[in-house]
Amino acid sequence: MNDRTYPQVCSGNIVKNFAIWEMANKRAPENTKLVITPGLIFHAQLMQELRDWYKKAMNVNSWYRSPKFNANLKNSNKNSSHLRGMATDVSLPGLTDKQYINLAKKWESICYQAGVIGGVTFYDWGMHFDCDSDVAFGCTEFRIDDMRR
């Protein structure tokens, strides 16, 4: 390796706080663990806005999923935003109801400003954020689903 300075994307990040390795599907049996598309980059930029506002780390559980991997998941959406790299599941344990709502409202605002129909799903372990609920779920407005017990 030489002493060259590489741009941020070459150092392993597309945006400041989310690394390419976090976006990759490390559990997929296929050799291709990540497909970087304009949609994935767009979603990463929106997630960075949310992270800047939140001011805390967000542990990524799932970002990109291959079609084969997604099909083998229990209760997965066959048109999941994860297939396009346009959804992120993050661990945020211990959130209060108010924190769930505040994160959802901020994501809705970010999506609105970007001109997309996004959505969130609340889970006991954290949240799902996507920026194409119109494609994945057929939504015509921002979507909020609560899957907590």
Topology:
Layout: E1 13-15, E2 18-19, H1 20-23, H2 38-54, E3 59-62, H3 67-71, E4 87-91, H4 97-114, E5 119-123, E6 126-130, H5 133-137, E7 143-146
Parallel strand pairs: 5-7
Antiparallel strand pairs: 1-2, 3-4, 4-6, 5-6
Could you report the average pLDDT, rounded to the nearest whole number?
Answer: 91
The helical percent reads: 25-40%
Approximate shape: globular
Which class do the helix and strand fractions yield?
alpha+beta
Report how far apart the termini are. Answer: 51 Å
The run of helices and strands is: EEHHEHEHEEHE
Low-pLDDT runs: 1-10
Largest sheet, order of strands side by side? 3-4-6-5-7
Beta strand %: 15-25%
CATH class: Alpha Beta
| Number of domain units | 1
**Main sheet attributes: strand count, strand direction, barrel closure:** 5 strands, mixed
- Number of alpha- plus pi-helical segments: 5
Cα-based radius of gyration, to the nearest Å: 15 Å
Strand count = 7
- Reported by name, the CATH topology is Muramoyl-pentapeptide Carboxypeptidase, domain 2
> Architecture, CATH level 2?
2-Layer Sandwich
